[in-house]
Amino acid sequence: EVQLVESGGGLVQPGGSLRLSCAASGFTLSDYYIDWVRQAPGKGLEWIGRSRNKANGFTTDYAASVKGRFTISRDDSENTLYLQMNSLRTEDTAVYYCVRDILYHSDGNWYCRFDYWGLGTLVTVSS
Amino acid sequence: AIQMTQSPSSLSASVGDRVAITCRASQDIRNDLGWYQQKPGKAPKLLIYAASNLHSGVPSRFSGSGSGTDFTLTIGSLQPEDFATYYCLQDYTYPYTFGQGTKVEIK
Question: pLDDT tens digit string along B18-34?
């Protein structure tokens, strides 16, 4: 059974750091693109970053709101993905989801399909 | 970044109603659009990808249409389990962007 389990959330002061983990089971993490999506309390969804699969060099992309502060990395031996969050701001307070993207290819185009989501982990940035 | 605007922001409907939610992109995104359903306290679920393709296991009362800048999610006959918030997502270019959500409530 495919599962993604986030951990590492908690309360942190503004300017602080936190590292979230996303443990994958039921599939080989290195074969898939994995994204992070967050949701501030009572708000909508925000895509914040992507880690491509091994075949695409584990390259990453980030939203402007987190670029330069957040970094996605992987540990294939642990089948785990990480989100290192530095210089945290109050506006980073949110539930953070890791999401598997099983890409769909048709007519020469690739399409995103976020088929499995973790349960999310809450990050609260407050003094 | 591409802006995605959903309408309405919320709607009230009855079981059995046909419901349509629209999503407009600030520029042409071909058919690079997905729809997700989220219930309170839960992670979102994929309904539609590539604008009109039904994800595996999703009931056929859900359908998607559109291309370019205008897209529609239609629920053919609303069921009790469909009361939720729906989001569109453009995956045409980075950063991927979601619509603000449409909350479907019971009338």
Answer: 999 999 999 999 999 99
